């Protein structure tokens, strides 16, 4: 059995400039590269990757470091599988502002 204290997760959080179409294209290419490398999108700029060991994490880190876009900021966080399983997700209630159209009363 693989120990949850030795298997690892990588969490990448990043901030990339997206003010121009070129920057957006570069940011989207970076996201696609993460997905093609086995990362799972948690949020638009937060991705996770399951690795079997710290050594595998180190290899992935070196690969991603080589493709960081100019003016980008990438943050790597490393967690054991045990720690990652303790993460909790909270979602707010969906609130939609719906206004009745002016002509609604004439339809009744």
Automatic annotation (TrEMBL):
Keyword Magnesium applies = yes
Checking SUPFAM superfamilies in the record gives: TTP0101/SSO1404-like
Q: Name one GO molecular function term.
A: hydrolase activity
Q: Does the keyword Amino-acid biosynthesis apply?
A: no
If you read the UniProt record, what top EC class would you report for this enzyme, in one word? hydrolase
Q: Where does Mg(2+) bind?
A: 15
Enzyme Commission (EC) number: 3.1.-.-
What are its cofactors? Mg(2+)
Keywords carried by this UniProt record: Antiviral defense, Endonuclease, Hydrolase, Magnesium, Metal-binding, Nuclease
Q: Name one Pfam family in it.
A: CRISPR_Cas2
User: What processes in GO biological process is this protein linked to?
Assistant: defense response to virus; maintenance of CRISPR repeat elements
Summarizing the function annotation, the protein's role is: CRISPR (clustered regularly interspaced short palindromic repeat), is an adaptive immune system that provides protection against mobile genetic elements (viruses, transposable elements and conjugative plasmids). CRISPR clusters contain sequences complementary to antecedent mobile elements and target invading nucleic acids. CRISPR clusters are transcribed and processed into CRISPR RNA (crRNA). Functions as a ssRNA-specific endoribonuclease. Involved in the integration of spacer DNA into the CRISPR cassette.
Q: How does it assemble?
A: Homodimer, forms a heterotetramer with a Cas1 homodimer.
Q: Which NCBIfam families match?
A: cas2
HAMAP family registered for this protein in UniProt: Cas2
Give the record's family classification: Belongs to the CRISPR-associated endoribonuclease Cas2 protein family.
| Name this protein carries in UniProt | CRISPR-associated endoribonuclease Cas2
Origin species: Elusimicrobium minutum (strain Pei191)
């Amino acid at each position: 059995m693989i120990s949850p204290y030795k298997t690892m997760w990588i969490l990448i959080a990043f901030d990339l400039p997206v003010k121009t179409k070129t920057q957006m294209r570069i940011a989207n290419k970076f996201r696609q590269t993460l997905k093609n490398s086995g990362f799972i999108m948690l949020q638009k700029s937060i991705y996770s990757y399951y690795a079997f060991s710290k050594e595998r994490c180190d290899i992935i880190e070196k690969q991603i470091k080589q493709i960081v876009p100019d003016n980008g900021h990438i943050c790597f966080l490393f967690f054991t599988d045990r720690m990652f399983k303790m993460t909790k997700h909270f979602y707010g209630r969906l609130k939609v502002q719906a206004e009745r159209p002016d002509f609604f009363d004439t339809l009744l």
